[in-house]
Design goal:
Blueprint lengths: L1 H17 L11 E12 L3 E9 L1 H4 L14 E8 L2 H7 L1 H4 L2 E3 L5 E4 L1 H6 L2 H9 L8 E5 L3 H6 L8 H15 L7 H8 L7 E10 L19 E13 L2 E6 L1 H11 L5 E6 L6 E18 L2 E17 L8 H30 L6 H8 L1 H6 L5 E5 L1
Parallel strand pairs: 1-4, 1-5, 5-6, 6-7, 12-13
Antiparallel strand pairs: 1-2, 2-3, 7-8, 8-9, 10-11, 11-12
Helix pairs in contact: 10-11
């Protein structure tokens, strides 16, 4: 009987002391962050800019007022000696504690990236609220300006940036990297980091293009848009340059990250182009040590469909298909060599993971290698 009473009392105490959510936070007390940008501010300070979602404006009907209509996000900036200090200072402006679980993208300004990103990213790695799958992008110019830009199809610009980044996989012309992958590359001793490039593309005002604006004849100013393509290249933790779309896909061929895309080749013995749609691709790096020299073989395999033919070709003949395959291989090799040449000669960076593969394949030899002469052989 006494045991039953003790158990009953214990259960009552459990109910009393564990009832409710002790660490609950009401949405009305939080600032929901959709995107964050980092810029350099002076010599040793960092400027953080965030897009904070305004829940009341998300479901609101679109107004005919155009640029004057309410926005679904509030863009606000804060400065500090560290990222953590800048984050804590936001509450003085917003009156709310920032909530990071919905953050979609981290945009790093060009000047800060060139100065080195390690010290500024530590907060984003340590904070448990931040998603490690948030995309990392590097801005041509200031990250703050990117976050202030609008998008015609999305009320929340961060959603559009996330969508454009994901869409880069369809054309394989952008280096799609999330926070975890970027940090892994930063901490690697045998590979240099890359990230997606984002930049502004100013759009003319409608009247300049000879298009009538909305009712009332009011002036409609030009609006900055953004686009995501290409790649930012780092040497260790510092930005050293950029790859265009062609060079970026050359890098992706080598690393086996080409998902889809279009390869245009010249028609064999005819004028015009043939567009080949890549549906599957793989890239394999195989290091070999021969006669004391390290050779890296890159084996690229693709499978595709004929998407468009702008010339006269008899595709029923096997020799014609064979010539098309050779033309496609030559086009891919040209893209790869463009990326290799720029990375090696201009940046001196290993963005392909050659050193990583050598380290993995020959761990003993790697310890003794001070200067590695790599011969690129493409199969």
């Amino acid at each position: 009987m006494k045991k039953r009473i003790l158990v009953f009392v214990f259960l009552i105490l459990q109910i009393v002391f564990t009832s409710g959510c002790w660490n609950r936070r009401e949405p009305s007390e939080l600032g929901l962050v959709a995107a964050v940008g980092l810029d350099k501010d002076g010599e040793n300070k960092v400027k953080l800019t965030v897009q904070i979602i305004k829940p009341g404006e998300i479901k609101a009907p679109v107004s005919k007022g155009g640029p004057g209509s309410p926005k679904a996000v509030w863009v606000v900036s804060s400065t500090g000696n560290t990222s953590f200090e800048a984050v804590r200072d936001f509450v003085n402006q917003t009156g709310r504690r920032l909530f990071w679980a919905h953050n979609k993208v981290i945009i790093i300004g060009e000047e800060l990236a060139a100065d080195g990103v390690v010290r500024y990213l530590d907060f984003f790695i340590r904070d448990p609220e931040l998603r490690r799958r948030s995309f990392v992008l590097v801005a041509r110019g200031k990250a703050e300006e990117i976050l202030q830009a609008e998008h015609p199809l999305e009320k929340i610009p961060a959603t559009a940036i996330e969508g454009s980044t994901k869409a880069g996989k369809n054309s394989s012309t952008s280096a799609v990297v999330n926070l975890k992958q970027f940090v892994d590359m930063l901490t690697s001793d045998s590979r240099d980091p890359v990230a997606s490039r984002i930049e502004l593309t100013p759009e003319e005002a409608p009247k300049k293009r000879g298009i009538e604006t909305t009712e009332g004849g009011g002036k409609e100013e030009a609006v900055n848009r953004f686009k995501v393509d290409g790649a930012a290249v780092f040497k260790r933790s510092k930005l050293v340059g950029w790859l265009n779309k062609t060079e970026t896909r050359g890098m992706l061929w080598v690393t086996g990250k080409v998902d889809k895309g279009i390869v245009d080749v010249n028609c064999p013995e005819h004028n015009g182009l043939v567009s080949i749609e890549v549906i599957r691709a793989s890239g394999k790096i195989k290091p070999v040590i021969k006669d004391g020299e390290i050779t890296v073989n890159v084996d690229i395999k693709t499978e595709g469909n004929l998407g468009e033919q702008a010339c006269q070709l008899d595709l029923t003949k096997p020799e014609v298909l064979h010539r098309l395959e050779e033309a496609e291989a030559a086009a891919i090799q040209e893209e790869v060599m463009a990326a290799l040449t720029k990375a090696q000669q201009e940046f001196g960076a290993d963005i392909f993971g050659f050193g990583e593969e050598i380290h993995r394949t020959f761990p003993r030899e790697w310890k003794n290698l001070q200067k590695i002469g790599i011969i690129y052989i493409l199969n």
